[in-house]
Design a protein that fits this description.
Elements lengths: L8 H26 L6 H19 L4 H16 L4 H6 L1 H13 L11
Helix pairs in contact: 2-3, 2-5, 3-5
Length: about 110
């Protein structure tokens, strides 16, 4: 029989416990820092506004709704809660995305390098 070479059970258990404690501490710090908002919440909010305005623009037959979005309806929609859960992460980014989508500009989150 060949004896297993590696750390003893005690050392392995201590190392595993330290790793779990470290992971728990890191998770606690992230939760404390961001609470319910994910670290990439600004990107989520921007894309939410961009997608919503792009859909409105796509189905706008006469262009009136698109003009209204650019004239301030994006801000009004966000204030009335029409941005949904995504706008809560960063309302200003949601409005910026809405304005970009309404204007027909490409999303700032597209591409490899931002």
């Amino acid at each position: 029989m060949h004896r297993h070479e590696g750390p003893s059970r005690g050392k392995f258990t201590a190392g595993l416990a330290a790793a779990v404690a470290f992971a728990g501490a890191v998770a606690g710090l992230l939760i404390g820092q961001y609470n319910d908002r994910p670290p990439w919440g600004t990107d989520i909010a921007y894309e939410g506004g961009f997608v919503q305005a792009t859909r409105i623009r796509k189905y706008d037959q006469d262009g009136e709704r698109t003009k209204a979005l650019l004239a301030g309806e994006c801000v009004l929609m966000e204030r009335q809660g029409m941005g949904g859960e995504r706008a809560v992460h960063d309302p200003a980014a949601w409005v910026a995305g809405c304005l970009d989508g309404a204007a027909g500009r490409p999303s700032r989150n597209q591409g490899i390098v931002r």
